[in-house]
Amino acid sequence: MPKVRRSVKQAAGALSILLFFVIVFLGLANYGFWDPMFHQILNLALILAILPITLLDTVDFRWRSSIEKALPRFLEGIAHAQLTGLTLLKAFKEAGEGITGPLRDEVRLMMAKISWGMEFEDALRFFMKRADTPLARRVAMLIIEANRSGGVVERIFTPLARATSTFQTMEEERKAQLKPY
User: Fold this and answer.
1) DSSP state letters, 69-91
2) End-to-end Cα, the chain, rounded Å
3) pLDDT score of 158
4) Which ranges of 84-133 would DSSP assign to H, the alpha helix?
5) In 10 A of CB 134, how many CB atoms?
6) What residues in the chain have per-residue pLDDT under 50?
């Protein structure tokens, strides 16, 4: 599932609204406001206007959710790779290869940008903007700070992975409890 850019969502929204008004105008011109056929056309126009926006938002939501679900495994991978003696950048790359889904693609994109000369911190900030979720922002900022601090950073990533996993579990429990309402 690909990331849906904001510009694509905006373009789809504009086209959907335009399509809605065209269908409503043609329905009014052909049938008049009080004709039952116009009301069916109005319902069809509403469905056609809402459908593309809803589909794009759903795809984007699933993309973001799958990134958030993979973050704890990714952080554990970084911690394990650093325990074997790899640098943070190499551990980042190795941990990225050990996961699947959109986060793997994002890690590959960051590694490509780093190989083209972008700084590690700038690549993480780029990821923060692309993922645009609170958890991804927190994790990226903590990785940036761990990189700046140097020293024994593998001690940071194991508790961070546990905390991230716990946070996700609590969020899922909260959603499950609120689901009946």
Assistant:
1) HHHHHHHHHHHHHHHTT--HHHH
2) 30
3) 86
4) 88-97, 102-115, 120-131
5) 10
6) none
